[in-house]
Amino acid sequence: MPRFIEIDAQRLEALHAGLDLLExxxxxxxxxxxxxxxxxxxxxxxxxxVLDAAREAIADNNDLAEEDVQVGEVAVSIPMGADTIYxxxxxGIRLDREDFAYMGAGGEGxxxxxxxxxxxxxxxxxxxxxxxALASSDSWIDDFLKKNGSGKPAxxxxxxxxxxxxxxxxxxxxxxxxxxxxxxxxxxxxxxxIDGRKLTSFLDDFLD
Length: 208
What we know:
By secondary structure, the chain is an alpha+beta fold. The chain has helices spanning about 10-30, 50-60, 80-90, 140-150, 160-165, 195-205; strands spanning about 5, 40-45, 70, 75-80, 95, 100-105, 110-115, 125, 130-135, 155. Helix 1 packs antiparallel against helix 3 (about 80-90).
């Protein structure tokens, strides 16, 4: 049995009516028949908002700054149901706790993360995915990306901007003015001298 079946948007839309009917029958019987199914929709996305959220999640999960991470595409895994398909056909669904896979940097291979770690939660429709597939669980998202992705790895440059700031030469500290020269020992401090003769002449003139 294949791990996932590749489909297009039209076939996924056609599946909606049948799945909606099966879920209605299952609910009337207590909801046990489909309870253990873990069907997922896989999709390759290069949408800017999806990539922004993925970059934020990768950075947060690896203790990096968001600007340290660049990723060009991700494979998203979305739990499937009739309501999910209907939303993807219309106003879209919000990626909140869904998992995604991306090609790691530096030969790391395919890595996985979750939009749980992103503060920004993008909303996606079928138009935001270039490739689609149905899978029996979220376990094969790596294989789906390996087969359908471009293979372009993410670029991670941790702390480059902070390292550059730390290694830049610092401006020299302002030097304190030199201390005033200290008189040599034994040299008396010079003071203004009073001419005794002038003082006597002044007093004589004043008393006359």
